[in-house]
Specification:
CATH superfamily: Response regulator
Number of domains: 1
Distance between the termini: 29 Å
Protein name: Two component LuxR family transcriptional regulator
Helix content: 40-55%
Order of helices and strands: EHEHEEEHEHEHHHHHHHH
Pfam family, one: Response_reg
CATH class: Alpha Beta
GO molecular function: DNA binding
Keywords: DNA-binding, Phosphoprotein
Structural class: alpha/beta
Radius of gyration: 17 Å
InterPro entries: CheY-like_superfamily (IPR011006), EvgA-like (IPR051015), NreC/VraR/RcsB-like_REC (IPR058245), Sig_transdc_resp-reg_C-effctor (IPR016032), Sig_transdc_resp-reg_receiver (IPR001789), Tscrpt_reg_LuxR_C (IPR000792), WH-like_DNA-bd_sf (IPR036388)
């Protein structure tokens, strides 16, 4: 497992690296202190997951996430930030982050985030799930305690298509959607027309009685749904897939 850390504070980055190595001794760590260096490593270093700070010298706020996802649409990105506002968390989900870890979080939250994302799931702290539900007017439900890492050896049992009540192609669409790909890029990877993928996304939202992708992501984090491992697409194939950068909401 190769993890890219993009944060301009060397001390925080070093502490995060020590914690990750304690939790995952075999992890290989890549470091970047600027967004441009982080994008370069994302393109050449073949990371499996990125932890991204939002406040970088050359990338302010959510713009940093948007630029990274434009460069590598299929690469899982988890935001690590001191900003815990629901507006920022929600915006990061719209920009296709697979997780959000406040810098005030416990080590268990970091562990849970890595396990969830590498298992094809989404990580949000319970407080963020509750706040986002209120902010986007979703039906209230007991919050899944996503900050507790599963009692496993680093994997969780994925939910298959029958368990979710989905046809295989819609299940595959969901897996790519969670990974953070816009519809045009999903269509390219699945060998389908964009209009077909958009139809699948509409079916997914209707199936779960939701209105937009952000609600779908919150629901998956809330229920602890994972979809299994998808191989991280290499940088050259990402460049061949349209990132649809102007339409980030599915």
């Amino acid at each position: 497992m190769r993890i890219l850390l993009v944060d301009d504070h060397e001390l925080f980055r070093a502490g995060l690296a020590l914690l990750i190595k304690e939790l995952f001794p075999d992890a290989e760590l890549l470091h970047a202190s600027t967004l441009s260096h982080g994008i370069d490593l994302a393109m050449t270093g073949q990371p499996d997951i990125v932890f991204l700070d939002l406040e970088l010298p050359d990338g302010h706020g959510c713009d940093a996430l948007g630029r990274l996802k434009d460069a590598r649409p299929s690469l899982p990105v988890v935001v690590v930030s001191g900003d815990e506002s629901m507006e920022t968390v929600g915006r990061c989900l719209e920009l296709r982050a697979m997780g959000y870890v406040p810098k005030s979080s416990s080590p268990e939250a970091l562990h849970a985030a890595i396990v969830a994302v590498l298992s094809g799931g989404v990580f949000l702290p319970a407080a963020s799930i509750a706040g986002l539900r209120r902010a986007i007017d979703m039906a209230e439900a007991p919050a899944h305690d996503s900050e507790k890492a599963p009692p496993t050896n680093g994997s969780v049992e994925p939910w298959d298509a029958p368990r979710l009540g989905l046809p295989p192609r819609e299940y595959e669409t969901l897996a790519w959607l969670v990974r953070g790909l816009p519809s045009k890029a999903i269509a390219s990877k699945m060998g389908l027309e964009d209009i077909t993928v958009r139809k699948y996304i509409s079916h997914l939202l209707a199936h779960f009685n939701l209105r937009r992708r952000t609600e779908l992501i919150v629901m998956m984090a809330d229920k602890g749904i994972t979809l299994g491992t998808l191989s991280v697409t290499d940088a050259s194939r990402d460049r061949d897939s349209p990132s649809d950068g102007r339409q980030r909401t599915g």
